[in-house]
Amino acid sequence: MDRFLIHGGRPLFGSVSVASAKNAVLPILAACLLTEEECAIRNVPALEDVRTMLKLLAALGVSVQHSGRTVRLCAGGRIARSAPYDIVRRMRAGYYVLGPLLGRFGEARVSLPGGCAIGARPVDLHLKGLEALGARVEVEHGYVQARARRLAGAAMRLEGTRGPSVGATANVMMAAVLARGETVIDGAAREPEVVDLAAFLGRLGADIRGAGTPTVRVRGVRRLGGADFRPIPDRVEAGTFAVAAALTGGRVQVRNCRPEHLAAVVDKLGEAGAEVTCERRSLTVTGRGRPRPLCLGTAPYPGFPTDIQAQFTALLAVADGTSVVTENIFEARFLHTMELARMGADIQVSGSVAVIRGVPRLSGAQVMASDLRASAALVLAGLVAEGETEVRRIYHLDRGYERLESKLGALGARIERRGDD
């Protein structure tokens, strides 16, 4: 099992390019099930989650061909309706095939999903939306089984107790594009990845309006065609490098990103004392001494993203004062704080609130990653810690970051990937 060895104390300088967004690519790949014509998805990142999704689509009967960073998919042959547990269990995004299979073929059998250990992530809103479209849905033996002769448009509200659901919005949107009539989704997720999925579906010939607003309207069409599409850049990867620059006191230009997707992150970096300059497709972050303390709470887009909370926790661990971070999306997303404490951080967690008393410095230690974004937080902490930090279980990291050690190394970090001794 691979691990990182990091020798901290070096500020990061230079420029780095961001890959396409994992959370946009995965539903777009699943959406290729909706058409029998070929789809070309460009600039696809070499991530473990992407490989798992392509393996799942191939298992269903989709033709999958790689050419460099372009993936060509064609679901024109015999397509299975059942997504096996052995693949779906590896990542939650495998659940995205439910909507396309049901929408195109009228039936789907998909294992309940896996993913990161960050608390309950129920699929009830997915099922509520599909039932509103007329599907009969049952959960048996760890599988969701859904059937419908043909789905029919309906009005529904998909907002849950913790806000809109990105996954449910995407799944229902994909199921509705071939349904009869109009579907109206109130309480829809507004994330850029949802907007990008809608843009891809539009290229296929779908009629979708309002993506990026709380109300999405989908008017069903009889069939969809093929498309050539390039997904948006990964705002979480961009935010991770931005935090790394501020944390290490360096200066990093983050290229191939959309600063408008990171407005909440840019605002908080500025409050913490970093200098941030935004251009059309890049942002440059300069660290200015110890960070200032912050109060921040995660929220659905356009609020502060839960996927960058852990990275900011690492930043605030060395802030000059006391910070308060409230996690409003996932109830178990402070597991990284226990590992940061091994490095000398002073963090007290009570329920959904973490009180972080900044310390002058962290010290290198052996730490264990619990999930994808926690992995990134521990790596960032290792960049400023005195001595050597060993981050274990980085397979979590490989699910969402492509060649992170190479990109950080090019910026001046001393980081090395090693296998088991």
TrEMBL record:
Q: Which residues bind UDP-N-acetyl-alpha-D-glucosamine?
A: 92, 121-125, 307, 329
Q: Which reaction does it catalyse?
A: phosphoenolpyruvate + UDP-N-acetyl-alpha-D-glucosamine = UDP-N-acetyl-3-O-(1-carboxyvinyl)-alpha-D-glucosamine + phosphate
Q: List the GO cellular component terms.
A: cytoplasm
Location comes to: Cytoplasm
Could you tell me which HAMAP family the record lists for this protein?
MurA
Its family? Belongs to the EPSP synthase family. MurA subfamily.
Q: What does this protein do?
A: Cell wall formation. Adds enolpyruvyl to UDP-N-acetylglucosamine.
Q: What is this protein called?
A: UDP-N-acetylglucosamine 1-carboxyvinyltransferase
- Naturally occurring in which organism (per UniProt): candidate division WOR-3 bacterium
Q: What is the lineage of its organism?
A: Bacteria, Bacteria division WOR-3
